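R.M. (postdoc): so does anyone remember the format we settled on? I'll just put the structure tokens first.
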């Protein structure tokens, strides 16, 4: 059964703070099933933090892959600006 939160969620494209998937974010995405998730620069460590960006690149791609697999009907976007 589709809940009211899911009905409303399907109208939303959302962003989030941080560079990591956490249990609260995962729960929110499952609960509201948004139309899309937009990743901003704040979600991906930039080139100016080269050692960190290289270390976390695989994590960011795993986040993208996880979201794509978990929510196949949700359009994802990588966005370079704040």
């Amino acid at each position: 059964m589709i809940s009211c939160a899911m009905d409303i969620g399907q109208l939303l494209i959302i962003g989030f703070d941080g560079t990591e998937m956490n249990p609260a974010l995962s729960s929110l995405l499952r609960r509201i099933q948004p139309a899309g998730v937009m990743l901003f620069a704040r979600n991906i460590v930039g080139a100016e933090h080269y050692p960190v960006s290289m270390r976390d690149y695989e994590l960011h791609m795993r986040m993208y892959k996880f979201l794509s697999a978990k929510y196949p009907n949700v359009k994802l976007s990588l966005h370079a600006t704040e």
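R.M.: ...and that's the designed sequence above, right after the tokens. Also worth knowing: The beta strands are 13-14, 36-39, 75-78. The chain has three helices and three strands.
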